[in-house]
Amino acid sequence: MKNSEIHHTFMLEAIAESWKARLHAPPNPWVGCVIVKDQKIIGKGYTYPSGQAHAEINALKSASENAKGASLYVTLEPCSHHGKTPPCTEAIIRAGILNVYVALKDPDSRVRGQGIQKLREAGIHVKVGIGEKEAKVVLTPYLYQRESQIPYTVLKIATSVDGRTAAVDGTSQWLTSSEARLDAHLQRAYSQAVVIGSGTATIDSPQLTVRHPTIHLFQQPQRILIDSSGKTPATGLLFDQKLAPTLVLTTKASSITRQNEWLKTGAEVIVISATKNGHVNLREAWQLLAKRGIIQVLVEGGSTLQSALLEIGLVNCLSVYTGPLLIGKSGLPLFSKEIPTLKKAKLLKIQNIKQFDNSFRVDYLLKV
């Protein structure tokens, strides 16, 4: 086996470790690390929850004193700054690591090549780019959020075969199979915020929490209600703060009375600017969420919010669950904007297809 193939194999092991941190690492990146000596893995680690040890530290602890003279493979550039934990570069240098193989440079403004530079200044051989393609797939939401300063956005939609998200009376429970709905809870778990509009909140009264038999989170995703004019009453599961925290993003068009009703439930309320048509300024809202450390947002409706996000280019991934039923032309469409010609249609790229019993899910990537 060639050296390049050997390095790639060990990086794939580090990438496999990184998946173990996917649910609990945010707002930090979910990173994996392995330490190799004499062509054998002597230590493994992945990022623990915020404020706890990073992947490199856990791998070094796993390797113990054997780390001296070894090679370290890590999916993302080691940090060189003091945050809630000391710099990983210092620990790597102290351990006597000879070689560091990095899949991806960290676009975070506090790192951006400084970690690699620190290691090289200490005499450590550093090579960047091994397993880059595979690591990008895992870290796409994090990389996008750090580079763009807005969260990576997944638009999750359940539709009928004829592309309707609800019947003419607004009912939409349930369009897909129970297996598909269970998968949707996994998507919630991968996100730090679940977002809905006032229409969905009023009609469905959703709980918006992760309820999956094999997933145990340190904390539930934040539930975010977009309500520009105060239409949503402060009742129901969405405003039960024992289930999960709730944030309402609104404008000055909502009454102080309604805002106080939301606040009395324990929800947080933030008034932001409105667009010309009086809706919440979604780009400003998304920038706010990124500043709060939210890496990935899952949007679950409704049609007005979905269409607005698609129109202004804030959607990265369209995740469509299709159930085996027909609703008819009077049902609510997935995308409400009129597109006059095929030449102006939004172009999508299929990323993934899965079947769940009598339903299926297709993930489409959008250019943003």
Task: Compose a concise summary of this entry.
This protein has helices at 3-19, 55-63, 88-94, 114-121, 132-148, 178-189, 198-204, 256-264, 282-291, 303-311; strands spanning 32-37, 40-46, 71-76, 99-104, 125-128, 152-159, 164-166, 193-197, 222-226, 246-250, 268-271, 296-299, 317-322, 332-333, 348-356, 359-366. The chain has 368 residues and is α/β, with parallel strands linked by helices.
Say what the CATH topology of the largest domain is: Dihydrofolate Reductase, subunit A
- CATH architecture term of the largest domain: 3-Layer(aba) Sandwich
Give the name of the CATH superfamily of the largest domain.
Dihydrofolate Reductase, subunit A
Question: Which of globular, elongated, flat, extended, rod-shaped describes the shape?
Answer: elongated
What number of domains?
2
The spatial strand order of the largest sheet comes to 11-10-9-8-12-6-13-16-15
The SS-based structural class is alpha/beta
Uncertain spans, ≥5 residues at pLDDT below 50?
none
Distance between the termini: 40 Å
Instruction: Let me know the average pLDDT.
Output: 91
- The number of strands is 16
**SSE order, as H and E?**
HEEHEHEHEHEEHEHEEHEHEHEEEE
| Helix content bin | 25-40%
| Separate helix tally | 10
What amount of the residues lies in strands?
15-25%
* Most strands sheet: 9 strands, mixed
Q: What is the CATH domain class of the largest domain? A: Alpha Beta
Calculate Rg over CA atoms. 23 Å
